[in-house]
Amino acid sequence: MKIQKAVITAAGRNQRHLPLQTLVDREGFPRSALNLLIEEITSAQIQDIGIVIAPGDEALFKESVDVTNAKLTFIEQDKPLGYGHAIHCAKSFVEGDPFLLMVSDHLYVSDSDASCARQLVNTAEKLGSSVSAVQATHEGKLTDFGAVGGTLSSGGKNLYAIDKILEKPTPTQAEQEILVPGLRMGHYLCFFGMHILTHKIFEILEELLKKKDAKPSLSDALQILAKQEQYLASIIQGRRYDLENRYGMLTAQMALALDGRHREEVLTQLVELLAESKHK
Question: What is the pTM (predicted TM-score) of this model?
Answer without folding.
Answer: 0.92
